[in-house]
Amino acid sequence: MLLLAAAAGLVLNRRSPQRPNVLLITIDTLRADRVGAYGHREPTTPVLDALAARGVRFASAQSASPLTGPSHATLLTGHYPPVHGVRDNARFTIGARSTTLAERLSRLGYQSAAFVAAFPLAGAFGFGRGFAVFDEGLVPAAQSGQVAERPADAVAGAALPWLQAAAARDDAPFFAWVHFFDPHQPYAPPEPLRARFADPYDGEIAFVDSQVGRLLEVLRRAGVEERTIVIVVSDHGESLGEHGESTHGLLLYEATLRVPLLMAGPGVPAGRVVEERVGTIDVLPTLLGLLGQPLPEGLHGRDLRPSLAGRELRPEPLYAESLYGRLNCRWAPLRAWTHGDLKLIAGQRDELFDLATDPAERDDLAAVRAPDTTRLRGALERALAAMAPGGDRASPAALSATQAESLRALGYVAGGGGGGALDAPGLPDPRDRVATLERLRVLGGAAGEAAPAALAEALSLARSDADNPLVHELVVGLAVRTGQLALAAEALGRFVELVPERVEAREQLGSLLRSLGRLEEAERELRRAVAESPAGATGVRVALADTLIARGSLPEAEALLDGVLARERDSRAALLAQARLKQAQDRGGEALALLEAVAEAGGNDQEALLALAEAYAQAGRPRASLQVAERVLSVSPAHPWALGLAGHALAVEGRRAEALALLQDALRAGPRRSQVWSRLAAGFEAAGEPGLATRCRVAARTAP
User: What ranges make up the beta strands (E) of 373-487?
Assistant: First the structure.
């Protein structure tokens, strides 16, 4: 009997983990005052409200940054940005000085998984450190200037099976981090929430709330709700027009810094409201305390468990920063220091607010309460010196051209991304340039008929704010959209002058110069980009090889491509360049065989298919060219090169009426590349339209 009892005890212990499970839910861009438990009158958050009722609600929680990457890095490390090193979205990586929550809990035997929905939280930026499973599903933005997001139901759908399996295990507790992005602009809630809420921002919040409910329901059904610590917090808020800012990122007012913070589960009493001011910096040490772990040295936050027990918290100052203006626009950095109800915002000038009497921060007290301003400014400077003893500097990681393009495709303007010392005299204060940034964001989304006027306005802004890299990058994008590639090259050259460390921008400049036929300049820029890139960077080496092919330096191009393919044998970009090299070496048969293999392996990769269709056309195989072009047209019906290839093939086969219809469609689609114009010229010639053929040949001589 004693042996049976002992055995039963062992089973009981295995089924009752010593430590609770942890579910951390972060909701992007959620203002505290849009949550019902925080006083919002619209029924947006019944799930979060119920969670607040069974746990603790922190009435005044402050984020460390109004940007997704830096704020999440603070939440997950317990360090402020000058220490963890993530100072802006997507260009910075969590530094070696910081240990992530996942790393800490994995060492304690936790099963761990993360499910994120936005590019700034990609594992490449350090957010995957410590997680056994890191699930990131990134979908390109539907339109230029929009932000991509994995919708909340897709994030929850990815997380639910893992949660169910983890909850069923009896040998280890779990830690899951689930990040929802939907309240981020553009606000586009699904039906029926779109029709139900007059404000689409509320509709997106309600959508996320329903998906949080799906996660919590898994805990209930698995019988682990009572032994799971649940934390729900936002990374930052949304200005919604306050202080002239429509969204977030630039300013440090409460509209973007005050966030909801809810906790429930073991060790957390039900129905309590903590009124004292706290920060998201306090989440990690509080969680470690709830798990019975000693606090590591060097954390900036504090253990909030005394407040959970109803004891008063001693006020601790809270730090926040926005370097968006500094790193992207060459404007001054903004930093905030909040102690009790007094909040200092320091830039090229100081602002002081009493949040108890002026929560909307309309009454600047910096002058009338000069001693308080001086005291808080001194405390901020001392804290910054302690966090960054050698001076506050930003150290961005180099992005490849592919990553930079992904960033733009995901709706993030890449901006300057400059590094080095952050504080310099004479920089414009971002609070004086809010309207400029708002206008840049609008112009960045201009397309079609609106693009030329947007370009003219962007050029005017570039003249008035000549040292702002973001303005010049905007000009580049609009100039490309309107077919003014020489102007794009000029603006990109100025951008590279301002931010010479942006290797991917130099690569882009070299490729643009090549397309303009300025081969010597292109080679110079690309050689420098190769020298400044990591050894494994593929894109820039392929770009240099293509330039060398165009200049006739075939042996060097071949050696360069061989080196790339030795490291990355399946690189489609390198294989396509190798096919172009073989064509330049008069090895057309080998080039065609290679293109066939690349196109087959690439599925519907349009670049590979178009290169193959062009090769078939050059080899006198119109039917094969038509079949491949039609594959592209099935996905992109208005692609001018595919239309030109298909039209040429039909004309060669004598199907003149069909050919002319496609060739005219190609003209209307607005071809830009010389190669496309040449194919159209051949197509019109074969269809018996010499006048149009001549027009296309002239365009081919002037096009890039």
Answer: 393-394, 420-421
